[in-house]
Amino acid sequence: MESRLKRLTQIMHANSLDAVALNPGSSLVYLTGLDFHLMERPVIALFGVDGRVSIVLPALEKGKLEGLGFPVHAQTYEDNPESWNQAFIEGFAAFSGRALRIGVEPTRMRILEESYLQQALPQAEIVHAGQTLASLRLHKDESELAKMRQAAIIAQNALLATLRIIRPGWTEQQIAGELAVQLSRAGSQGEGFGAIVALSENAANPHSTPGQRALKEGDFLLIDYGAVFEGYASDITRTFSYGEVSEEMRTVAGLVYEANRSARENSKPGMPAGEVDRFARSVIEAGGYAEYFTHRTGHGLGMEIHEAPYIFSGNPLLLEEGMTFTIEPGIYLPGRFGVRIEDDVVVTPEGLRSLTDLPRPVLPLESFWE
What we know:
This protein is an alpha+beta fold. 31% of the residues lie in helices and 22% in strands. The mean pLDDT is 96.
């Protein structure tokens, strides 16, 4: 925690920030170990560039501060909302009276917290610091990578257990439910996100929601899901066939497989993130399906399912050792079927190392049945 807080101070100095305000979320956990539920009771931690830390939180949560490991000024409030504004004024008194420039995460900070922060520090300028704060968690150390690898192992074991059980006639919802059970049995500490389980025409929607469509002969089954281990996530997609599928389905499956392979095997540290996208996209373009690859090739992964770096065309961010992200090309033919193959990778001095190692070709479901 001490080294992470020092890095935060360095980042604030480099970006002319006097303080950073965080509400419950991954960045707060990363810096302090404090994990709060994002709820109707606001929690704000304020980190000063001078090293001081203040936090305002509900009285019922104060026990979480025991054994924190660094000094923090804590101000609590009771459940009467009429007293909350005064609690924030008192809690952040050490920061008041100055025209501070305070950075926040715009995708995390709500109007609820921002309003209390602004009332407590009316002279402050609250600024967008999303990219600045994202750099905190951009490079994973060996401990973090070990947790991500374990999250991948748990997810893979859960999927294999699920595939052995499902049969024709099972609906997307039933498959998703079984997968959730198997994730828990395999050791996942919750689902990273609601699993996408989609059959054929539903798989043509990249973010489909499991429904009542039932597995039948000639289907593709797309499963996009993840596990969580000690706060770190995995995010995996595999596509399977059942029975005899069309020649075009086999062609599309082969193209997506090659696009995934090309991006994983050709990407190296020092190249722009946009090049990873190009390696995958060029394969699909050459196969004649460019218009059906409708999203970026990947996104960063770690304590959150989506975080920096983002793997999209033209992104100039240079890949560096310790960056982790997904590679997930896909082809989606509206009303017919979709295929996506997704792996989690880390940048190493030699290239990309995959944290996921399930077979990547589109395999028949029957091959998993006992």
